[in-house]
Amino acid sequence: MREYAQIFQGTAFTSKSPKEVEILNDYLFCINSKGMIEKIVAPEDTVFQDLLDVYQGKENFHRLAEGQYFLPGFVDLHVHAPQWAQSGTALDIPLYDWLNTYTFPLESKFSDLAFAKNVYEDVVSTLLANGTTTALYFATVHKEASLLLAEICAEKGQRGLVGKVVMDDPEQNPTFYRDADTQTALADTEEFILAVKELAKSTKQGVYPVVTPRFIPSCTEEGLKGLGELAAKYDTYVQSHCSESDWAHSYVQERLQKNDAFALNDFGLLRDKSVMAHCNFLDEDDADLFAETGTAVAHCPISNAYFANSVIPIAHLHSKGVEIGLGSDISGGFSPSLFDNARQAVMSSRMLEDGVNPTLPAEERGVPASRITINEAFYFATAGGGESLSLPIGRLAESYAWDVQIIDTKIVSAKLPIFNEHEDVNDVFQKIMYLVRPENIREVWIQGDKVHSRS
Ligand code: GUN
Ligand code: FE
């Protein structure tokens, strides 16, 4: 019999397809020394009992208690780590004012490494406690503090993809918060990429550098072009904001006479490893371009409710072959939880389909075929995020990383309403998706290592 580093036994939920959730009832998950799922064994499989005979009772055998379930860890495709310090505040003003009045002054404080350490340690721990095992982070323009965020991810065991933000246009950014000039922005980005690649060698789960122009309005054309070249040279991830609000969208149209999707592509910034946040205003050609280049959309439903002045037609984009994952967009979105964002994704899609103007006749109100189910929201939060990043994460399947959250439905302070011992497991899944709170997330594992537990 093969030797495994660890074996876990219990019932798991994982996406089979965007619309279907697979229930693995009381399976064994055999994990190798690299933290990957090497074998999944069903109870009716002949080796099931053999494995139990060998491993049961050993330290590396973990059996879930009654009422506990495995979910894949969440993949948050869009988090502004420094903005955690202002989460939940200042959401009543438009994006442009919000950036200038609150966000840039806050982010400028991350030149102070002691302040950065405080916030970054807390945001990484908070995301872990909310079941997020992989996060695609915007840091700030500061190279050192951005590297500190990657180091904190490495140390806490989170799979962090981190970008030093580029804001090199002296005309568009405040003097107190921007890159010194374009050449410095590019040189800092290159040094940052090399430093994170070096750091990654000492981690099991991986940390990754991300080329990060904040959005077209903060960057010069020379800067954007240089960043595209760096992404190609080092084959890195790329992240930015695309077509987020009426304001951002029309700003790019006026400046470059094209939609920002095409502008980003012309600068070499739409690649298979690109993730663009929001994308509320993609038109049909933009969406085709995303599908062709393999660029993914980070769908940020809570944030969009505040800044977009619209609802993104996520079902339509997905049907056109665009890869989609979920993003919290802390702090444009107030919640660090992808459970909360999955719930909002479903609710927003229902509002788009069913319409929100009750003065119109029912048949004229909404956009047909817009709704998504909670199964699809779960897919976006897990497997969809993994596919967007081209990493073997987000599914409980062989050859995927053992990134899981152990959900306890019986925690006294946050008990789920399960009154029937023989409750249909699919109903349990839906209750988990709609009702779980951080208290229910008993343990979180990344790449075979326990990174969070709540006793
Ligand atoms: N566009 C440019 N910067 C930001 C940001 O920090 N948050 C959001 N939501 N949109 C942006
Ligand atoms: Fe954002």
Automatic annotation (TrEMBL):
Annotated InterPro entries: Amidohydro-rel, Guanine_deaminase, Metal-dep_hydrolase_composite, Metal_Hydrolase, Metallo-dep_hydrolases
Its biological purpose: Catalyzes the hydrolytic deamination of guanine, producing xanthine and ammonia.
Organism ancestry: Bacteria, Bacillati, Bacillota, Bacilli, Bacillales
Domain Amidohydrolase-related: 71-450
GO cellular component, one term: cytosol
GO MF annotation: an example: zinc ion binding
Natural source organism: Psychrobacillus glaciei
Cited PANTHER family: GUANINE DEAMINASE
Biological pathway: Purine metabolism; guanine degradation; xanthine from guanine: step 1/1
Pfam families (alphabetical): Amidohydro_1
EC number: 3.5.4.3
Family stated for the protein in its record: Belongs to the metallo-dependent hydrolases superfamily. ATZ/TRZ family.
Catalytic activity: guanine + H2O + H(+) = xanthine + NH4(+)
SUPFAM superfamilies: Composite domain of metallo-dependent hydrolases, Metallo-dependent hydrolases
Cofactor (UniProt): Zn(2+)
Lineage top rank: taxon: Bacteria
Cofactor note: Binds 1 zinc ion per subunit.
UniProt-recorded name of the protein: Guanine deaminase
Gene3D superfamilies associated with the record: Metal-dependent hydrolases, Urease, subunit C, domain 1
Keyword entries, A-Z: Hydrolase, Metal-binding, Zinc
GO biological process: guanine catabolic process
